[in-house]
Amino acid sequence: MNPDILIERFLEIVGDRGVITDPADLEHYCTDWRGVFKGKAMCVVLPQATAQVAAVVRLCAAENVPLVPHGGNTGLSGGATPDDSGQQVILSLSRMAAIRSIDGIGETMEVEAGCILQVAQEAAAESGMLLPISLAAEGSAKIGGILSTNAGGTNVLRYGMARGRVLGLEVVTAEGEIVNGLRQLRKDNAGYDWKQLFIGTEGTLGIITAAVLQLAPMPRHKATAFIAVDSPEDALKVLRAARQEIGEALNAFELMSGPSVDLVVRHLGIALPVGAAPWYVLLEATSSLGGLREGVEQLFEKVFEREEASDGVIAESERQEMELWSIRESITECESRAGRSVKHDVSVPISSIPSFLQVASEAVERAFPNVRVNAFGHAGDGNMHFNVIVPPETDALALNRLVHDLVVQYGGSISAEHGIGQYRVGELVRCRSEPELKLAVRVKRALDPRNLLNPGKVLPAFLIAK
Ligand SMILES: Cc1cc2nc3c(=O)[nH]c(=O)nc-3n(C[C@H](O)[C@H](O)[C@H](O)COP(=O)(O)OP(=O)(O)OC[C@H]3O[C@@H](n4cnc5c(N)ncnc54)[C@H](O)[C@@H]3O)c2cc1C
Q1: Is residue 172 scored above 80 in pLDDT?
Q2: Complex ipTM value
Q3: Does residue 424 line the site of ligand 1, with CB under 6 A?
Q4: Same domain for 135 and 78?
């Protein structure tokens, strides 16, 4: 069908203000957050209801037009960016942003996919509950994107990945059928748990239109501490001690290398809250019951006595808590100011973190002269951002391969939380076993046999066609 006629048909479905075709307005939708991936699109379609999403998908299926679902565009793998053919249609659910209901007894929220994460968090907080998905992009990322990428963030250690929050899901399939599974049930073993197919599959199997999320009680007490340690081994001893002293109240356990914190100190002029050290830990504990500060003080006593930590500070105020967190959250920005960096969002078993960091750093520095490893991450759940600041001429793919091969040797994952998108498609094929890839292809062929949903993302076309 001629694109002009197709656009007319979209307008009939979603109304006058529901289609964007102006090249200047399309630009934002066709460029990813970091400006690394750029594409072209025929148009952006913005439905206002699930029935409209279904009608758009049916029309695209009938006309063989590929669709690229688009959330807040904060994904770091190019998953929401179209290819450069100009033939793909971007589907944005930003006009479907309602919080449909909140249940204070069952601690659940039914929310549409276009709702910004922070808006959903605030609505939960107004009802005295916590939506425990938290990441630095929460002011822009949307529920549909969060669930499609199975986002992680800073409190996975306690609350798990986004998948763990989903009780019910509403999706539109590749044929344009609405499947309503918006149940509020914690227990539901009636047949296949099909919703898991759409969580973390980056819009390649269906469109998420709404979800029922499990909320949690809002903690009333918080303790945040910044700790200086000599090595990742010592950091894990502090983690073990923290689990013993404050147990399930431990929310976040972030590990930062000395050089990564130095970048923040240098670029933002922030004063170090503790004495200089080779590594630092930022930990946060929250609870509905009191006694947290005492727990962290006991932790300090033990780790100092055993010389597992050299210095530490507990935040005295909300402002100081924010200052400590801002050191951790500014690392990515300061890294980009330090020059070109090659990023690896990897996970390994928690107890292997020290060995992995040492072996990978030595291997990278041996193979690529003049590079600097910038390692930091959510060590409490095994996820490290093993980034490398490199000279402009460095072969990024060769560097990726070196790091990912080591990750595989450690039984790790080449994408802990940022997904595959278009960025890591080749590496997924290289690093996952053949039976696992075969299984993934069978699922894709079953649910989207013509590869019209986000083609080129997660699985390469040649594998699906084979
Ligand atoms: C500063 C910063 C910090 C970040 N920190 C973290 C972090 O700590 N942890 C983490 O996990 N991620 C992090 N991210 C990555 C990003 O925020 C997450 O991947 C987020 O889940 C993406 O949501 P989004 O709405 O922006 O999705 P988009 O980027 O728009 O899309 C992401 C993917 O989901 C698909 N998609 C979007 N909406 C739908 C839908 N309704 N149905 C089906 N598919 C859909 C898209 O096609 C794409 O493949 C960070 C990003 C930034 C910029």
Answers
A1: yes
A2: 0.99
A3: no
A4: no
